[in-house]
Amino acid sequence: MQHAPSSRLPPPPPPSTVSTSDQPQPSTSTATAPETSVEATRTAYDVRRELMKNINPPVVTDIDTRHIFTVNDIGRLLDIAACRECYAPLTFDVQTDCLSSKLIVTCTDCENGTVFRNNEVRTNTGKKTRLQENNVQGIYEAVNNNIGLSGLNRVISTLGFNSISKGKFTRYANFLYEGMGIKYPAMMQEGIKGVFQHYENFGIFSDPTTGLLDITVSYNRTWMTRGHSSHKGVEFVVEVDTGFIVDREVISNFCQVCSNRDKKQLPITPEWKIKHEPFCNKNFTGISASMEAEAACRLWGRSTQLRLRYTTFVGDGDSNTYLAIQQLNPYDVPVQKDVAAATMVL
Ligand SMILES: [Zn+2]
Ligand SMILES: [Zn+2]
């Protein structure tokens, strides 16, 4: 949904041939600002849903063929079955892996037997993954519906299944994120195009010489843990009228692998460093409290690569962040802080 820009934008040009009901209307009151905040949250969630939509796992199409049976049910079934080769009774073994199961049926007399297992998913390029389809489906829903590992484990333990470990969840989620990463750049491009279009609708165009468009943004974040001691966070620049996330920065001053190596007092050789660097989670060496400002500087510093200038800052964060942007002074015009809008967003 695209709603009317706030009062920060000038009125749109007079209606042309398009019917006025199709034209976005600028709001004359400031009452739209709280809506902006809701919109931004909704859009962040929707962007992820959209990104996740067409990647693995595919939508379940054989929904009528999926059922849950207990081991006792299968036992009773096999009690009345016999081996096709020698007519001897059958025995079975079940191995479970969270939401996936493997059923091994063998003859009690001859070598005859068979294995039933949950499908293994493949990557977008068709490569085998050894990841079980049911688990991928479950973790996909957990990521997509914002319930995370703990939410998923609450659901599956209610159903009587073994819970999923953090490591396994991460492995499956990474598989999904890889698929998401392939779609992300194209989707962001589309969204940024939409922001340009939105401003154009109100008669605001990019600078003809530089090609840069000045926009009003808010700066939002989600941290792994609350407070300023979190080692990991994601910072977002959100265009306030469309609620579209124009850029984001994942920032972390901690890497588990580096930390483990340090704890075990293993040497950090140049060879090891080169090998580990692409996988290292640490991309900032300062203290946690300064990560928000650092991420802001990175985002403001590269905005022109997106043909944008974030010249109005609707700040709900601490003033250190705004101060850091001012010190960075990324453009030849100052970045203004829109305090009034920030108060309303809060
Ligand atoms: Zn047999
Ligand atoms: Zn590391």
Q: How is this structure best described in words?
A:
38% of the residues lie in helices and 19% in strands. With 346 residues, the protein is α+β, with helices and mostly antiparallel strands. The protein has 2 domains: 63-169, no CATH class; 206-345, Nucleotidyltransferase, domain 5, CATH 3.30.420. A 5-stranded mixed beta sheet has the order 8-7-6-9-10, with helices on both faces. It has a 3-stranded antiparallel beta sheet with strand order 1-2-3. A hairpin with a 5-residue loop joins strand 4 and strand 5. Bound molecules: zinc ion (2 copies). One zinc ion (ZN) is lined by residues 83, 85-86, 88, 107, 109-110, 112.
Short description:
This protein has 346 residues and is α+β, with helices and mostly antiparallel strands. The protein is built from ten helices and ten strands. It is elongated and about 85 Å long.
Characteristic key phrases:
single chain; 346 residues; alpha+beta; Nucleotidyltransferase, domain 5; 2 domains; five-stranded mixed β-sheet; three-stranded antiparallel β-sheet; 38% helix; elongated; binds zinc ion; Mutator_transp_dom; Mutator-like transposase domain-containing protein
